[in-house]
From TrEMBL:
This is Concentrative nucleoside transporter, CNT family. It is a multi-pass membrane protein. The keyword Manganese does not apply. The keyword Membrane applies. GO terms for cellular component: plasma membrane. It holds the Pfam family Nucleos_tra2_C. It is found in: Cell membrane. GO terms for molecular function: nucleoside transmembrane transporter activity; symporter activity.
Length: 422
């Protein structure tokens, strides 16, 4: 029955994309089918092929090591602060290995990963990896080089940084290419944030690393599938059939790369902390207000945002193949991720504020909420890409909500396919 539900989900997701297509006659069904097949192949490799399973298990362990290395840096800065450890005692954060303070650990991890990415970028490693995968996706799906590069880059770096990699092409990209690029950045998650989520799961005893890596890999072709249904290509692309990425570093040397990477990581980390404080506080205010409103009708009617999300997103969660015991919880997390942000949704998941009872439910929801697709990210994209290519600002504004729609459906499609194959 679960697999049947998943098939319903795929039909529903593709049907919604088709319904909102601006040119149904021009949809490239070869691209759509090849993109879905590519997603299926990625999921099969990660979940069913032992050597690949082993490889991603090692990657997951490496993510844990990254958090441990980041803790070394944080220990120097925050040493002397008392934190509560699992046994309930208070110990020095700088000397205890398993101490976890969200602001300290998350900040340190993001800073370290951003510094490492900057080093890889300086030596051209990041560009070559992105170009290699982009060429493969370009060959399979027959999309343009700019689209392939941007979508693959989004699996490694932030949503605006991915557009920097295709800066020379932004001015001449078609609106269909621009939407595909924006959608990919919203469907994927940056490497630093992915490591943070994996370690948040590890703190809660949840093995999220393989699921999140799968989500990020599947998101690139998934975003292209959905965006090319919603906005099929009707113009001539400057980069059709070619994948060229300039291997050039903006840094003077390794020290400069680490300095800039750490600085950028700090800005991202502070933004994450500020958003969490602001959004969680606003959610508390809204829940308090909704609770009062609900009690006006009945003293037993506890109206909250979770109640609203759980009912509003229930049909989508069910159609994605989520087991019945988890449908309401998954629907709640889908609502939190889209309307608030993915960090709040992951915090609810890993803190078990919204409990997930089954392995299949955990797999589907982990992939579904692993992406930047929320309303605040749309504003960040329009502002960030608009600074890189100011002449495209009007187009970016027009495509913003479409990109949010495509990025969200792309994450749902990946999650549904993974659920069917589990």
């Amino acid at each position: 029955m679960g697999r049947f539900q998943g098939l319903v989900g795929i039909i529903l997701i593709l049907g919604l994309a088709f319904l909102f297509s601006n040119n149904k006659r021009k949809i490239n069904y070869r691209l759509v089918i090849s993109g879905i097949i590519l997603q299926v192949v990625i999921a099969l490799l990660v979940f069913k092929v032992p050597p690949v399973i082993w490889f991603f298990q090692q990657v997951g362990k490496a993510m844990g090591k990254v958090e441990a290395f980041a803790h070394q840096g944080a220990s120097f800065v925050y040493g002397g602060i008392g934190v509560q450890v699992p046994d309930g005692s208070i110990q020095n954060y700088g000397t205890v290995a398993n101490g976890f303070v969200f602001a300290f650990n998350v900040t340190a991890t993001i800073i370290l990963v951003c510094a490492l990415v900057a080093v890889f970028y300086h030596f051209g490693i990041m560009q070559r990896i992105v170009a290699l995968i982009a060429r493969a996706m370009n060959w399979v799906m027959r999309v343009s080089g700019a689209e392939a590069l941007s979508n693959v880059a989004s699996a490694f770096v932030g949503q605006v940084e991915a557009q920097v990699m295709i800066r020379p092409y932004l001015k001449g990209m078609t609106n269909s290419e621009l939407l595909a690029s924006m959608s990919g950045s919203l469907a994927c998650i940056a490497g630093g944030i992915l490591v943070v989520y994996a370690n948040m799961g590890a703190q809660a005893g949840l093995d999220l690393a393989p699921k999140l890596i799968t989500a990020s890999l599947m998101a690139a072709p998934g975003a292209l599938v959905i965006s090319k249904i919603v906005f099929p290509e009707t113009a001539d692309s400057q980069t059709m059939g070619t994948v060229k990425l300039e291997v050039k570093s903006n840094y003077t040397n390794v020290i400069d790369a680490i300095s800039h990477g750490a600085g950028d990581g700090f800005k991202i980390a502070m933004n994450v902390i500020a958003m969490l404080i602001g959004f969680i506080a606003v959610i508390a205010l809204l829940n308090y207000s909704l609770l009062k409103i609900g009690h006006l009708f009945s003293p037993h009617f506890d109206l909250t945002l979770d109640y609203i999300f759980g009912n509003l997103f229930y049909p989508m969660a069910w159609s994605m193949g989520v087991p019945d015991s988890d449908v309401h919880s998954v629907a709640t997390l889908l609502g939190q991720k889209l309307t608030v942000n993915e960090f709040v949704a992951f915090k609810s998941l890993t803190s078990k504020t919204v409990p997930i009872l089954t392995d299949k439910g955990l797999l589907i929801v982990s992939i579904a909420i692993c992406g930047f697709a929320n309303f605040s990210s749309v504003g960040m994209q329009i502002g960030g890409i608009g600074e890189i290519a100011p002449e495209r600002r009007a187009d970016l504004a027009k495509l913003g909500l479409k990109a949010l729609f495509c990025g969200t459906l792309a994450s749902y499609l990946s999650a549904t396919i993974a659920g069917i194959l589990m």
